[in-house]
From TrEMBL:
Pfam family, one: MARVEL
Protein name per Swiss-Prot or TrEMBL: MARVEL domain-containing protein
Domain MARVEL: 52-143
Principal place of residence: membrane
Keywords: Membrane, Transmembrane, Transmembrane helix
Cellular localization per UniProt: Membrane
UniProt entry tagged with the keyword Membrane: yes
């Protein structure tokens, strides 16, 4: 929103009017501004749930969390068949290792997404640069 203000010589100029949210971002730093390993200095950033949940990284983590649940539940519910015996066989070429691999990937992705979502919440309040560096490297290696 712009406000019409007059200058000293009487000419009218349009001046931008700052909203409270934009002033808060200037004062405390928004999610997009970065300093050390993707975050502002600790204690300067207030947690904003709307900005956190609309951030692309958070949306992708939530999607990977949901897809990991889908992968794990599909393999557990429909991944094994019983053909004429009491022994269950995996539907993937009757190889139990294939089903075990799929379930392991699903569980690892679920736990990783949960841990990294929690880490993303606490990341702006980390004051130690070494801890931030470890968090970013652990995310990179896990990914």
């Amino acid at each position: 929103m712009e406000v019409l203000e007059s200058t000293e010589d009487g000419a009218a100029m349009l001046q931008p009017k700052m909203s409270l949210a934009s002033l808060r971002e200037l004062k405390f730093g928004g999610m997009e501004t970065a300093s050390a390993y993707g975050a502002m200095k600790a204690g300067r950033v207030l947690f904003d749930p709307v900005a956190f949940f609309t951030h692309p990284r958070t949306i992708l983590r939530l999607l990977s969390w949901v897809f990991s649940i889908v992968v794990f539940s599909c393999i557990v519910n429909e991944g094994y068949i019983n053909i004429g015996s009491e022994r269950l066989l995996c539907v993937f070429n009757k190889n139990a290792h294939a089903c075990n691999y799929g379930m392991t990937v699903g569980v690892a992705c679920f736990l990783g997404s949960t841990c990294f979502l929690i880490l993303d919440v606490y990341f702006p309040s980390m004051s130690n640069l070494k801890d931030r560096k470890r968090a970013v490297l652990f995310d990179l290696i896990f990914s």
